[in-house]
TrEMBL record:
Entry protein name: RNA polymerase sigma factor
CDD domains: Sigma70_r4 (cd06171)
NCBIfam families, alphabetized: sigma70-ECF
Pfam family, one: Sigma70_r4_2
Protein keywords: Sigma factor, Transcription, Transcription regulation
Keyword Transcription appears in the UniProt entry: yes
Coiled coil (UniProt feature): none
MF (Gene Ontology): DNA binding; sigma factor activity
Annotated ranges, domain RNA polymerase sigma factor 70 region 4 type: 135-185
Species whose genome carries this gene: Chryseolinea soli
Gene Ontology biological-process annotations: DNA-templated transcription initiation
Family designation: Belongs to the sigma-70 factor family. ECF subfamily.
Amino acid sequence: MPMKAKPVYTTECEKDCDEVIWGDFRNGDKSAFATLYHRYFKTLIQHGLRVSGDKDLVKDCIHDLFMEIWKNKLNLSTPDSVKAYLISSLQRKVIRQLKKIRTRENGVLQWPTLDFVHSKEDQIISEQRKEEQRRKISRALEVLTKRQKEAVYLKFYSNLSYTEIANLMAISTESIYNLVSKAMDNLQGELTKLPEHKFQ
C-alpha cells in the first residue's frame, strides 16, 4: 500500500476538494491516497478511541481500513462525505474487532460500551460520587434507541454536521434534527432525576 507517498494537496480543503482527491485516489493516484490518510488520521484516531481505549487496536483498524479501500478503490463510489464515510467505516471495523476479542476471551458477544458516556460524565458529576453517578447516567442512556445513540455520538463527539450525519445514516437532514432533539429531550428527562445534577 502506498502509504509513504508524499501528499501534494493542500491541508485545508472543502467538500468539493475532498471529492476531487477521492476521485484521483480511485484512479490510482498515490499522492491523493496519502493525502486522505494524513488528512484524516488524527480524526480517525480520536473517533476510534471513543469506541475503544486501545490505541494500538485503533491504529491497526485504521491501517486495515486504508488497505481495504486501496485494494477495492476501483469498486468504490464517491461518498457524499469522505469524512463521514471513513468515520463510519472505522467505527464498524473497531466494533467488529472488539466483538472478536470478546468472543475469544468470554465466548459471548457483547456490544462495546461507547466511551463518550464516560467523557460526558466527567463534566456532570463530582469526583467523589463518580462511580455511583456513572451507573445512573449509563442507565439513563439506555432510554435512547440505537439510532439516537449513533446520531448523538456522531454529532457531539465526532463533530459531524447534520448533513454529514444524514448522509452517513441514510436518512433526511430533518430526520436527524428530530432524532437528536428527541434524544436530548429523553436524556434531559432522565438526568434531571439524578440528585443535585442537571444535564446541559
